[in-house]
C-alpha cells in the first residue's frame, strides 16, 4: 500500500466521519440516527475482499470510536468482523451485480447493530440491549442500503491500486465497470 | 481482531483509558470547528428543502392563501421556539435548589452521537471550568453528569442512560435513601432499594441525597413517582419515575462546578 493509497483512505474516512457527525446526527427519526461509518467495511469487503474489508472495518471503527461514548475499540472489533464477513460471503457471488451492495448493506448493517449491542452488553454496558433495537436496525439498514452504491464508488476509488492477493476483484475496483 | 480486543481490554482496565479519553478529547476539539462550519452551511439548505417539501404538499390548494397560513404558522413556531428557549433560560436563572454552587450555563449542541447511549453534547468544556463527573442541571432538575470534558465542549450522560445511577432521598426528613437507575433514552427511571410497603404517592419528588463523597450535591430534584406497586415475594417495591427535567427538549443547561470533595 502506497502513501497515496493511505492518503485516499484517510480522505474518505474524514469525508464519512464529517457527514456522520453533521448531516446524519441531524437526521433523527424517533431519537435514532443513521450510521454511515458501517458502510465502509461493507463496501470495502465487496470491493477488496475479506482482508481489505477487515482492515477498513478496523480503521473506520477506530475513527468512529473517537466520537462515541460506548467502549473504545468496540466499533473497530465489530467493523473488522463485518468487513471480513462481507468479503467472505460475497466471494462466490457476482460482485459486479448492482443489487449486491444495497443488499449487503441492508443485511450487514442489521447484523452490525445487533452484534454491536450484544458485545457491548457483554463488555459491561447492558443498557445497549435496552434501546429500541428494531428502530435502530431498520433506520441504519435502510439508509445504508440507499447509500451503498455511491459509497461503493467512493471506496473503490481508494482501493483501486490495492492488490487483493488472489481474491477475485470486483471490476469496480479496477475501474472496468461503466 | 486481536488489536481491537486488546484496545477494548486495555481501555476497560483503566490505565489505557486516559489515552483513549485524551484521543477522544483531541478528536472532538479538532472536529468542533468543522462540525460548526458544516452545520452553518447545511442549516439553510435543510430549511430550504423543508420549505420546498411543505410548499409542494399545499400546491393543490389556494397557493396565495396557503402561503400566508404557512408564514403565520412559521411565525407561531418561531415564537413557540423562542418562548421555550426563554422559559428554559429563565428557569436556569431561578434555580432554587443550588444557591451556593457556581454554575456554567451551556447550550445543548447535539443529542448524542450513539444510538446506544443517552447523551447530549454541550457548548462548554475544560476552558470554562468543566471537569469530568460534574453534575448538569436543567430548569426542572438533574439532567445528568459530564462523562467527557473536551477543551470547549463536553458530553453529558443523561439520567435516563442505562449506565446512570443517582443516589436519592425521598419522604419526610431525614428521608429514605434509594438509588435511581436509568433504563435507556426516553424510558422512565426505576428506583432500587425501596422497601416493600413504603408509602409513596404519585408525583412525589426524589432529590439527590448528597451523602458524603456523593457524585451529586444534596437537594437537586431528580424525578417524580409515576407508579409504585408491591411485588409478591419481593422485599423491594417496584417504583417507576419520570425525570423532572424535560430531557427530550433540552436547549440550555447548567454545569454545576461541583466535585465530591467540594
Question: Topology of this protein?
Answer:
The complex is a heterodimer of chains A (178) and B (262).
Chain A: H1 3-26, H2 39-65, H3 74-89, H4 100-122, H5 133-158, H6 171-174
Helix pairs in contact in A: 1-5, 2-3, 2-4, 2-5, 3-4, 4-5
Chain B: H1 2-13, H2 17-58, H3 63-93, E1 103-110, E2 119-122, E3 135-137, E4 142-149, E5 154-158, E6 165-170, E7 176-181, E8 189-192, E9 205-208, E10 221-230, E11 237-243, E12 252-256
Antiparallel strand pairs in B: 1-2, 1-12, 2-5, 3-4, 3-12, 4-5, 6-7, 6-9, 7-8, 8-11, 9-10, 10-11
Helix pairs in contact in B: 1-2
Question: Which terms summarize this structure?
Answer:
heterodimer, A: 178 residues, mainly alpha, Arp2/3 complex 21 kDa subunit ARPC3, 0% strand, disordered C terminus, B: 262 residues, alpha+beta, Thrombin, subunit H, 2 domains, 6-stranded antiparallel β-barrel, 3 helices
3D structure, described in words:
The complex is a heterodimer of chains A (about 180) and B (about 260). Chain A has about 180 residues and is mainly α. Chain A has one domain: Arp2/3 complex 21 kDa subunit ARPC3, CATH 1.10.1760. Chain A has 6 helices and no strands. In chain A, helix 2 packs parallel to helix 4. Chain A starts with a helix and ends with a helix. The C terminus of chain A is likely disordered. By secondary structure, chain B is α+β, with helices and mostly antiparallel strands. Chain B has 2 domains: about 90 residues, no CATH class; about 160 residues, Thrombin, subunit H, CATH 2.40.10.340. Chain B has 3 helices and 12 strands. A 6-stranded antiparallel barrel of chain B has the order 1-2-5-4-3-12. In chain B, strands 6-7-8-11-10-9 form a 6-stranded antiparallel β-barrel. In chain B, strand 6 and strand 7 form a beta hairpin. In chain B, helix 1 packs across helix 2. The longest helix of chain B has about 40 residues. The relative contact order of chain B is 0.14. The mean pLDDT of chain B is about 80. Classes of the chains: A mainly alpha (about 180), B alpha+beta (about 260). At the A-B interface, helix 1, helix 2, helix 3 and helix 4 of A face helix 1 and helix 2 of B.
